[in-house]
């Protein structure tokens, strides 16, 4: 059944119930080529009827009968009401629908776990007044995650039963200036219902603890780490500490790759564009005499294991 669509130029909507298919037929100039179609359930074809070329846009999935009709009518309105050429009208309509119906993007699991680990450290830091929120460098592309008066700290978080951590880049375990560098190893595991922390709840909790410039730093840092509040319902896992955190002094005996170490081995690092490696710290004893700030944070995070 072909239904004329009133207006100029004359368009037709063909309804094919047995195949649950809708087709919009549009006159097409002889010199115009159809667009490349990247959609799985929309067909775009050129037909010749007599001496006239037509562009036929069809839905090919029965689930698109209702929504596909709205899309085809949007194409028809652009052609008849806005005077847009058929191919451009189709491209504009599909671009609009793709934008409106774009999938929401949530943090990767690795990014979520890493952010939870850093926020737990931040909460312990605020609870003990070890430092203000400005000490957290979060996702701001600084050398290390936390910069305190007495030490820089790189927080590494894993969900593995082993204390294994990924190091990103040759500079991540290089001390900055005269500040000693410590790595704080955090192990998380999924918690039961009502136990542990969901990432959005943890962010909300921290927002209640800071204000003014510190609140701005918190919001800026979680955003730089990839968080936005429209992900709240997509992030459902609850996390708790698997073990008490352990701190390691990143000194000469710590396993790592750095530009200086590779240069000492006569390895030219200039051609190395990306370096990522995993460090196995399972069974490695914690470094003794951590700086006061690190010791305070470890003690606060370890309270859950005191019983």
From TrEMBL:
Q: Which InterPro entries match?
A: DUF4420 (IPR025534)
Q: Which domain of life is it from?
A: Bacteria
Q: What is this protein called?
A: PD-(D/E)XK motif protein
């Amino acid at each position: 059944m072909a239904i004329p669509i009133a207006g100029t130029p004359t368009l037709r909507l063909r309804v094919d119930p047995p195949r649950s298919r809708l087709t919009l037929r549009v006159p097409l100039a002889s010199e115009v080529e159809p667009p490349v179609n990247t959609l799985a359930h929309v067909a775009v074809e050129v037909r010749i009827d007599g001496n006239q070329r037509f562009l036929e846009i069809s839905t090919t999935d029965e689930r698109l009968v209702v929504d596909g009709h709205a899309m085809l009518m949007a194409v028809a309105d652009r052609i008849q009401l806005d005077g847009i050429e058929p191919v451009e009208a189709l491209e504009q309509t599909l671009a609009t629908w793709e934008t409106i119906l774009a999938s929401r993007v949530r943090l990767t699991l690795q990014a979520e776990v890493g952010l939870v680990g850093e926020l737990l450290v931040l909460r312990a830091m605020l609870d003990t007044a070890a430092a203000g929120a400005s000490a957290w460098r979060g996702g701001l592309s600084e050398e290390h995650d936390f910069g305190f008066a007495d030490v820089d700290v790189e927080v590494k978080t894993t969900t593995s039963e082993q204390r294994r951590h990924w190091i990103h880049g040759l500079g991540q375990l290089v001390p900055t200036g005269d500040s000693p560098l410590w790595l704080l190893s955090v192990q998380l595991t999924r918690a039961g219902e009502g136990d542990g922390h969901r990432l959005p709840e943890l962010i909300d909790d921290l927002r209640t603890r800071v204000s003014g410039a510190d609140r701005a730093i918190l919001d800026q840092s979680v955003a730089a780490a990839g968080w936005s509040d429209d992900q709240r319902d997509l992030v459902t896992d609850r996390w708790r500490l698997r073990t008490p955190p352990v701190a390691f002094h990143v000194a000469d005996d710590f396993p790592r790759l750095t530009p200086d170490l590779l240069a000492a081995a006569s390895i030219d690092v200039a051609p190395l564009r990306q370096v990522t490696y995993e460090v196995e710290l399972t069974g490695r004893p914690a470094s003794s005499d951590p700086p006061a700030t690190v010791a305070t944070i470890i003690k606060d995070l370890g309270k859950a294991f005191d019983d």
